[in-house]
Design goal:
The complex is a heterodimer of chains A (308) and B (97).
Chain A: E1 6-13, E2 16-23, H1 28-44, H2 52-59, E3 64-65, H3 68-83, H4 93-98, E4 128-130, E5 135-137, H5 147-164, E6 169-174, E7 177-182, E8 190-194, E9 203-209, E10 212-217, E11 223-226, E12 229-232, E13 249-254, H6 257-267, E14 281-285, E15 291-294, E16 301-306
Antiparallel strand pairs in A: 1-2, 2-6, 3-5, 4-5, 6-7, 7-10, 8-9, 9-16, 10-13, 11-12, 13-14, 14-15
Chain B: H1 3-14, E1 25-31, H2 33-47, E2 55-64, E3 71-77, E4 92-94
Classes of the chains: A alpha+beta (308), B alpha+beta (97).
Chain lengths: 308, 97
Amino acid sequence: MTEREVHSTRTSVMGTWSHVMVVNGDRELVQRATGRLAYLEQLWSRFLPDSDISRLNRAQHGATPVAPETVRLVQQAVQAWHITGGAFDPTLLPALEAAGYDRNFADLAPDDVSLTTRPHREGCGNISVNAHAQTIDLGPNNSFDGGGIAKGLAADLVASEMIAAGAAGALVNIGGDMRMIGTPPEGEFWAVEIDEPAAPGAPRLTIAMKEGAVATSTPTRRKWTKDGQHLHHLIDPITQKPIERCNQLVTCIATEAWWAEAMTKKLMKPFTHFADRDACSALVVDVDNAATYLGGFERYVISTEVAA
Amino acid sequence: MTDDERVAQLSARRNTKNSPARGAKRVVTGFSIALTLGFVGAMATQANSATPPPVIEQVVVVQAQQPGEPVVLQVKRPEPPTAQAQQTKPSTKTRGS
């Protein structure tokens, strides 16, 4: 078998780390991919005042011109909101800010948050997307936060672009939300380690697939405390507060990363109903560290190394 | 009869022939046209990807509130590995962020 040429790089983008890999493609594609990711961050960050998302949130009611990529992001997010019946909700920004996550997480001191009153929220029902005119109207008193689904969609877009540019295989991983297309670096399958601190005796899993997407969410990293109250960034759309007894880890496997990421958010809430139409396979670890496989997740597991 | 009861009844009938994990079908009522169109849109997005089609494992039938034929959708998941994949080294890691 001919040895495959692999180029990769790791960098920081969208408030987290990223890993880009190209198999049997021009080395320049890796640099082009990281440039595209930086551009998408400029469009989608809620912490950059001139980003499309910041302009949308300032504009409130009224059609706002945005980049084609932002049209796609809002379309996908609204689709996910519809399909999950609101369990995935990209309009929870006021609740997230009210819980204290109102600046870049790196700048958030653990005890430097102020809880405010429960904010008003509209959901996605009033969001209008005009793909032809490339404008978006969030509707009155509404806001949008791409959050994880933006990372997933960025991985989808940039991995597809690398394949379109001639690569045999491409991987784009943004903070654990990833898309893998085409020829892997070795063998026939892309393998991914689920890198979470496992309880003593619990298995550390490696999964594999022909190609596809993987996303993971956890409340254990972006967390803070206030007056003894433990808070995290995963908001319950019903209570509009951090999810109580939140599942500790959800990893979803799907065909595209934006959908895998949306499903992790749906399944973070304990005892969430899992349906056929969810179109993913999931690993759910609850607050008592009990793991459950959903949608045939076990078929993707190739290694269950036990942690020391 | 609720949706879940109807699904359970249909699944019980089909389970005499099919395993629940493969080929299971489901009839869901009460979803809006918007939901149906949204899902079709999501599947269309997948179809537009410049990649080979993933494995089709299940078929979900969503019946809109308005009269008309049910819309048949294909629920797709990535192709799982074969036994030879067990020797594959991980290319990357996933972790919550």
